[in-house]
Amino acid sequence: MALAAATGNPWLALAAFGISDFFSSVLNCIGPTGVALETDHVFGDPTALPRSMTVIALPAILLGELFAHVARAPFRRTHAAFGEPIGGKVIPVSRR
User: Cβ distance 75 to 91 under 8 Å?
Assistant: First the structure.
């Protein structure tokens, strides 16, 4: 909604939603498939499932934290541009 308001183009917002949905679907398939492939081909033992899940989940968690940290600045700038408060106050935007 904010993207459509900012650009005046609702199709851009729809495209962004579609891209986000596509990546979400792909990542939801990669996790279980990665665990299965690692359990079968790397460990070669069905009882190694907990280790395989840990090996797949740990990098995903760390990457998620990194992406969330990187996205904080653009998120704050977007909210400040629309005058929406974050935590009850408007964060000033520094122009580069």
Answer: no
Q: What is the pLDDT of residues 13-65, one digit of tens each?
A: 666 667 777 767 777 777 888 899 999 999 999 999 999 999 988 888 888 88
Nearest residue to 65 via CA among 74, 57, 54: 57
How many Å apart are CA 23 and CA 26, to the nearest integer?
Answer: 5
Tell me, what's the pLDDT at 44? 93
Residue 4 above 60 pLDDT?
no
For 9-76, give the DSSP string. Answer: -HHHHHHHHHHHHHHHHHHHHHHHHHHHHIIIIII--GGGHHHHHHHHHHHHHHHHHHHHHHHHHHHH
* 3-state SS class at 95: coil
